[in-house]
């Protein structure tokens, strides 16, 4: 089983979903992407991240949107994500 790349812990950033092993939130990654930063630029600013972790953050956000809208997940989407009830209910 693959290790979850996105975790949530009430003791880290108030429970915001973060990249496992860091204090970098999914929200921060999405903010950087929404302002037009490329994956390469994000990796330059945060050299301890990997492309796979950035992709996991985007996949996590996608799953949250899908859950809230009731859309079906693609069988091709196998990114490991740890979901907690308190994250989904926000």
UniProtKB/TrEMBL annotation:
Q: Which one Pfam family would you cite for this protein?
A: DUF433
> Which InterPro entries is this protein grouped with?
DUF433 (IPR007367), Homeodomain-like_sf (IPR009057), WH-like_DNA-bd_sf (IPR036388)
Q: Which domain of life is it from?
A: Bacteria
PANTHER family named among the record's database cross-references: SSL5025 PROTEIN, SSR2962 PROTEIN
Q: What is this protein called?
A: Antitoxin
What is the protein's species of origin?
A: Candidatus Daviesbacteria bacterium GW2011_GWC2_40_12
């Amino acid at each position: 089983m693959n290790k979850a790349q996105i975790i949530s812990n009430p003791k880290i950033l108030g429970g915001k979903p973060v990249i496992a092993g860091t204090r970098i939130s999914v929200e921060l990654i999405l903010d950087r992407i929404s302002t037009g930063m490329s994956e390469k630029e994000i990796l330059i600013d945060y050299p301890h991240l990997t492309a796979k972790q950035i992709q996991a953050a985007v996949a996590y956000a996608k799953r949250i949107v899908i859950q809230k809208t009731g859309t079906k997940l693609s069988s091709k989407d196998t990114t490991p994500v740890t979901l907690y009830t308190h994250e989904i209910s926000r």
